[in-house]
Each structure stands twice: as structure tokens, then as C-alpha cells.
Amino acid sequence: MSDVEPVGGPGREGDSEASESAARRLAVLQRAGGMVTPLITVVFAFLVGGLVVVATTGKNPLTTYKAIFDGSGLNWLLPWQTCADPCTAALNFQQTLIIWIPLALTGLAVAFAFRCGLFNIGGQGQYLVGAIVAVWVGSSFQGLTPVLHILLAIVAASVSGALYGGIAGLLKATVGAHEVITTIMLNWIAVWVGIFLFGLGGPLQNDPQPWVPVSNDIAEGAKLPVFWGDPILQGLHIGLFVAAGFLVVFWVMLNRTTLGYEVRAVGFNPEAARYGGISVSRNYFLAMAISGLFAGLAGSLDILGWQFRLNVNDIQISNVGFVGIAVALLGRNTAIGTGLAALLFAALTTGTSTRNLDPEIFRPELASNLTLLIQGLVVLFVGADVLILYLWGLRRKARLGRGAAA
Amino acid sequence: MSRAWEIFLARLPRGARAAAWVGVGIGILAAWLMTPPVMLRSPVVPVLVGAVAVALGGYAFTRGVRRLGAGAAVFGLLGAGLGVLTTQSGEANLEGVVVWSALFAAMLRYATPLIFASIGGMFSERSGVVNIGLEGMMLMGCFFAIWGADRTGSWLGGVAIAAVAGGLLALVHAYFAIHLRADQIVGGTAVNFLALGITGYLFIDIYKDTGTPSDVARIPDVHLSFLKDWYFVGPIVGQLNLLIWIGLVTILGSWIVMFKTPVGLRIRSVGEHPRAAETVGISVYKTRYAAVTLSGVLAALGGAYLSIGFVGSFNQNMTAGRGFIALAALIFGKWRPFGAAAAAILFGLSSALADRLPVYSESGAVLFRSLPYALTLIAVAGVIGRSIPPAAIGRPYVKQ
Fold it and tell me: Considering the entire predicted model, what is its pTM?
């Protein structure tokens, strides 16, 4: 186990907060596992989920998973899949991709902060702030030309998300308040402010129906164009390209810019970074602000792309930002990993929704809780680096043993 | 007795400190005078009384009692402001909203789940294990209390099964945090997801579309009939749920355990400096396991109160962030039993008030619900006394 020394490091003498940072621990993982460990984790989580299905309902888990797979529309990608017109698989796949957009972006939000050694639990709050600002801008300024209106809403929402995330970064940088605590508080403040704004008698509640706690609809011109599927049937909007573009932006920013270098340096070891002349507090603030920008952008794309209004109930039950944590952890905080992990969770969410899962095979209400269970297991085991490294070590040892024998 | 009395007297604040404390009291008085039953209607009164509080605070401030003095001044200004505001409100509205006895009774009902969970969180975090999974453990308590009460036919069975369920989930968190040295915040997040999934799944699977049975055994109220006619006190504590009383006892009990017994010393030492603790023969792992499991049991008791004490039914995700308010109370109370409990009670009062404020403004009452989070944010930002966590919190420990 000598090659995985850093894992034992944190508990050893003279440990500073530096050696404890989540980013560092995950960096160790990255070297150890790469793609393999997340895959093992996912397979394991699905196995446990399958056992739960058998134990509680006696149904065949494979049939259930096949139904979820079909419900997610991923079968559209299979080359032998044929379907009637309009193709159900295509419609389902559009839904999956619509959910993929915010999950990928909130995943990036969590991942970016992670790379700076910060745990941004506030993705949900930043996402909500973005959504609130987007719906406000989108439903005001009726006369604007469409492109300008969309750009204004997206930029305003992203900047607000960045500012909201920046609060936590600023508090961390100036008074050392732990970002986990501040972001949790900011999440709930965002939730209640949202309910206040769009609730009964709230300042931004809709005008035509004062008895319904929902915002005004955004203007027609502020809606994102749909490029695949029917705009009336919730087709796929161009936010997909924005999100995909930001996966690239994330990678370039982290790996090819001075900012990214500094952020990662602070994430590895803030003390060493400070010694090297990098302003740690500046990077804490920037990392949280950029993190919030991703999440705020996600909120605006959801509003402008398919929700078009913000409902008080949606504010309360939305958990996009929290799933973003699972996405980032499973994706190992890399751009590609986050994109793939977001696809997995988006497919699970769509595949188990009441609209898409065949109730004859499995109850959608049960299945959506199964999704939560699988997400929980994934997060639990992805976080257990020692377990994974131990298994990895066994594998290495076995391989070395074989080599010696031969 | 007289000896204890002398000690008590010797510990009372003196000089400028005492002045500042009196200032805080007078600041509260400024607002209280304007509410029922006294209900003075002149805006001059709160301004004058508030000014006295500010003056006392200023005096204390100049004498070097800076933080408390500033606090007294803030209380004076707030009291005066609130007092003037209440004179703007109709008397009938005021009498409807500010019924102190009913408010306090509601406050205790809202505070109890928070008290259990935040005291639980204190044990876990004092031993060095961050517990943001309180929400999930509480949710487990909610569901399994109903399920247990339904199966066993008695509320006692419900509470016991809830405690076991919460403890088991906490044990999972403990195993990953302690033995596998996983990141504790990741683990807590996972625990919250798991609890949502487990309780939601079982709820749908067992209770289908009918919901939980309405005749499920409830935790009984304690009727103190001799108190019934006491002014003010009677309506508050005359008929409280048994678990509320247990919650109040838990506060005192946890203080005794944490600060007056060797067990508490061990928990704290493991959370402050595990290496030193292990050197003197304390098992870091065992202590942390026990503390984390206990936190799950306590959080689940809070959940059990919520489902079979307060509401009488279960809904998916029924804790709705209460576990996080409990976490906020723990931090706001600086990881101390009385501090955490006081914060939980303050947050309970704000919930109780929020229930009654819609008379004035439907939407304003909603905004009021974010107060606990805003206050905690201010507290961790260090504006009113920094909250400093245990030194070894969040760090996995490697046995030597």
C-alpha cells in the first residue's frame, strides 16, 4: 500500500487543514481509479437497488431496469431500435437531455469549487437565485427583441448566481466561515425568498390569477428556441449547446488558464499556494463566484428553456442542486466525468418519472424513490476513498503477484 | 444552600457588564410594553425606554464591555423600532397575534424536534464528526415512528423503532466517516439522500395511496391539571406532549453528560485533539462511534415527535429542512447544549410567530421563515460573536 501513502497522510502528525481538503483527497482518487472506480460504484448501487426491488415487490429487477432504461429514452441511441412516428424513444430522450442541462451545470458548479478545495453545497440556492432572476427578467421588459431578451435574462441570472455564491466565498476568504455552513443557510434563504416573491400576495406573483402562487409567464421572445422535437410538446431547447459549451469552458478554464492553475493550486494545498505567491482568499472568492455562475446559468436555462414560469411548489421540491453534488462526485470533478454522470442521473430521473415509466412494470412513485436511493448509495461509496483504494491495492497486489509468478 | 447561593451571587455580572445586561432587558421591555396584555399605545414610550437601553449599552461600551454593550444598544434600537411599529397596528390584530401563552406553547412544539436534533448533532460534532445528515436521520425517525406505532400498536414501540432506525443510519455515517475515512460532508449528503429514498420508498410500498393510518397510536400529552388555573403558566405547560418534556430534560442531561462527567470529557477531547486523547488511553474510534450513533437516535426522536407527537401522519420529505435548522441552531448556539437549545427555542418562536403573522401580510410571514438561516449566517460571519467549531471536526483519524 506504499503507493497510496497520501491517504494515510491526513491523520498523521502536523496535519494542517491543507492536507484535509476534499479536492486533495479526490485528486488521490483520480490517480488511483480513473474511470473504473465510479463505474464499480454505479454497478454496486444498481445491484443494491435491484435487491431492494426483489425484496420489496418480488419483481424482476432486470425488467424494472429495462423499463427505466426505455423510459429514459436511451434506447433511442441503440442502432437496432426502430420506432413509429412520433418516436416515443426520441421524445423520452429529449426529456432526459432537458434534465441533463441543469444537472451538468450544477455538477460543474460543485466540481469547480471542489477543485479549489471548497465544498459548495449551495448549488441549489444559486440555481434558485438564477431561476428567480431569469423569470423576473423574462417576464418584464416585454418589448425587447428576442435575442437581446434571452441574453439579458441569462447574463443577469448567471451574474446573480455568481454573486450569491460569492457571498459564501467572501465569508470564507475574509472571516474563515466554513463554506458548507454558509451555503446551507444561503440555500434555505433562497428557498424562502423565492416562496415570498411568488407566493400569495408576493411582489412578483402573477397578475392574471392572484389566487395561484406562481410567477408571470416569461415573454414569448424570451423562450429559448427548440431545435429537436415539438416546441409545444416540450422539445429539446438550445440550452443543450450552452451547457455542452460550458463543459468545454470548465475544462479550458481549469487546465489552460492562470486562474484555473491558481484555483487548483489552492485546492491541492492552500499553504503551499500562499507561499508560492497566490492569493488564497481571492481564489476562494473567485471559485465560489464561478461556481455560482454555473448554477445560476442552470436556473436560467431551465426557466427560459422549458419551465417558462416559477411555481412556489417547484421551488420547494426542486433538488437539482443537490443532485449536482452527486453528479460532481461521481464525475470525479472533471468535465467529461460530470457530463457522463449528469447523463446517468438525468436518465434515471426521466426514466422513473410518472410520465415515462410503464406503471404495469413498476410503480413510478416507487421508482423515483429508488432513484434517490441509488443516488445516495453512489455518493456514499464514491466518498469512501479508502475502501476503493483498498480494493485497488488488492488488485495491484494480485497483478504483481501474478507477475512475480510468471 | 447558603454556600451555593454565595457562589451564584459571586458569578453574577458586575459593573459595566451588569449595566449591559440590564440594557438588553430594557430593550426587550421596550417592545413588550406595547404588546398585550400591557399594550401601551403611545409611540413615545418605546422610544424613551429604548433610549435608556441604548444609553446603558453605550455606558458599558465605553467601559470596555464592547460586545455586550453593542448588543444592548442593538436590543434597545430593535425594541424601540418594534415598539413603535406595534403602535401602528390595530388593537384587535395585536390581541389576535400576540397571545404570549399560546405563542410560547406553539414555540415549544416547534422547538422540540430542533432541540432533539441539535443536541444530537452536538454529540456528533463535539466528537469530531460533522453531521449534516441530521435531516436524514430525523426523517428516518418520522417514518419509522409511524410504522412502528402502526405495527406494534403502541406509541412506545413507535418511538423505540424510530430510535433504532435513526441510530442505524447514523451508524452507516459513522462507519464511512470513521473506519473508511470518507469525507464526512459527502457522507452526510449521502445519508440525506438515502433517508429520502428509504422512507419515500417504504412509504409508497407499505401505505400505497391511502397514506398512513389516521388511528395510529400517538405519543400522549401530559396533563398537569393542578396547573390549569395558574395565570400564564397553565396554558403553556398544562398540556404538553410527553416528548416535549423529555426534550427539555435532554437539554439538561446533555449538559451534565458533556461537561460534568468523564464521558463528556472523553467526547470533547476526541473532538479537540484525538491524538492526545488516544495517548491517555481513550479509544477515539469507539467514542466517535458512540457519539455519532447517539446523535442519530436523538435526531430520530425529534422526528418521532414530529410524526406521532405533533402531526399524526407521515408525508414524503416531511422534515422539510428542519434538520438543517437544527444544524443552524447547533452552530448558532456555539456547539453548547444550552446555547443550541436556546437557539432551537428562538427558531421555534420565529416559526410560531410566522404562523400568526399572515394577519398582517401573507407574504411577509413567509419571509420571516428565513430568519433562522439569516441569523446563523450572521453568527458564522462573526458579527455577533464568532462560532468556533471543535478543533478536530471533520478530520478522519488514523489509529497509531
Answer: 0.85
